[in-house]
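User: Second chain of the day. Same drill as before.
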Amino acid sequence: MAERESAPARAQKRTALFSVVAAVFLVALKLGAGLASGSLGLVAEAAHSGTDLVAALLTLFAIGVAVRPADQEHHYGHGKAEHLAALAESTFLMLVSAFLGYVAVVRLFSDTPHDVDATWWSFVVIAIVIGVDASRALISLRASRRYSSAALASNALHFASDLAGSTAVLIGLVFVAAGYPRADPIAAVIVAVIVMVAAARLANGSVQVLMDRASADADQAIQRALAGLEEPVDVRRVRVRHAGGRTFVDLVVAVRPDAALTQAHTVADHIEEVVGRELPGADVLVHVEPAPSGGDLRERATVAALTVPDVHEVHNVRLMHVDNGFELSLHVKLPRGLSLAQAHDSVERLERAVQAALPEVRMVHAHIEPLSETDWASKPAREEVADARHVIEDIVRRYTGHDATAVRFRDADRGRVALVTVLLPPDQPLPSAPRRAGDIEDAVRERCPELADVIVHTEPAASEAAGR
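Assistant: Same format as last time:
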């Protein structure tokens, strides 16, 4: 079943349809009055409205295409249909205006002025035309701003030029009635010039969009968004394009080479969010690349190890200085489905990759670990964990000097897991925190061997608590 059109799409089509009806009415009115009175200015205005009829029909068609969603063949949607239509109608406007200008110049410099009958009803016609031009220009302008529509904006420009041209024809008829017949071709020349200038502006704007010219305002908005980030990012490339009232932004940023996939994804999401706030409705795509590795040997070794396809995680990287050289030890996690022979091949590729990236490393010692499966955990009954809780709280007080912040238990597939949160002095060196946590975990395992695992999370204590 076909998708229902959105309310904005229906509103744009209604505006374009009103323009078609108005253009048909004005063509008939101006052409009839021009032929009856012999006024080239009115005939020029009729031709101008005829081009607007073509423009309105193209706009109606373009909007019907532009509002379609992206599909398999048009990944960026159909928004450029509006600009193609605007370019076609502007070209048509320039050709017709050039012809009318030529005829007006011939009449202006002819030996005998062309007979123009400036009757009262010709002034009534011009007054009606000016009223219609003003109303449809205002309606199209408001709709183009509300829906960011290039096609409706071009319609508004045309109708405004119609208003200016109709005013010029009115002034020309006033002078004709006062006894200056050459004022009519002068008015026709003015109309032709107005239309040519408007068409040239419209064509230039459409060409710029079709050529994907970057918007200076959009670039500045992106720079403001990136400058407001808490942690600066290395922006490699920014590309901006505009079509169908929507901005498309492509960014390439660099992150730490040892950053995990989830970390890089979080950075990309945050950038998309802040850029989207500066450019509402924009389609923002962020591509993340690793920054050149300029860190220490551990970081460079981690980056090299993660280039091996089967390697999913690297941790516990230790660098050892041995006889004017280095040896490296690390833990590497590989897929559980690999055989021992396959895992060994992966580790050998890892070792070669690390030594190629770090020639100063003579030997790599890799400890293989399988990727862990997800444990489905549940909360045990309180009476089942009372003894273990008492033991854990006693050990935490002995090692830290105050109570544990939280002690939780979970029954997972491999047994009961204790999750403990403890407070440590905030000014102590970072390496002491995991050592203290490890001491607590070992003490709990020794006194509660029934626990499958103990995980201690450390947090900095408030200064008052740390001092007690």
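Confidence is low (pLDDT under 50) at residues 464-468.

User: Great, on to the next one.
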